Amino acid sequence: MSDGAFGDTARSIAASSHITERITRLMTDYSAVIDNDRLESWPDFFVQNCFYSVIGRSDHEVGRLAGFMYCDNRDMLVDRIRSLRSANVFQPHRYRHIISPPRILAVNGDVVRCETSYALIRTSVPEGAMVVFSTGRYLDEIVFEGSDAKFQRRVAVTDSDRIDMLLVIPI
Amino acid sequence: MSDGAFGDTARSIAASSHITERITRLMTDYSAVIDNDRLESWPDFFVQNCFYSVIGRSDHEVGRLAGFMYCDNRDMLVDRIRSLRSANVFQPHRYRHIISPPRILAVNGDVVRCETSYALIRTSVPEGAMVVFSTGRYLDEIVFEGSDAKFQRRVAVTDSDRIDMLLVIPI
Amino acid sequence: MSDGAFGDTARSIAASSHITERITRLMTDYSAVIDNDRLESWPDFFVQNCFYSVIGRSDHEVGRLAGFMYCDNRDMLVDRIRSLRSANVFQPHRYRHIISPPRILAVNGDVVRCETSYALIRTSVPEGAMVVFSTGRYLDEIVFEGSDAKFQRRVAVTDSDRIDMLLVIPI
Question: Among A67, A119, B91, B132, whose CB has the most other CB atoms within 10 angstroms?
Answer without folding.
Answer: A119
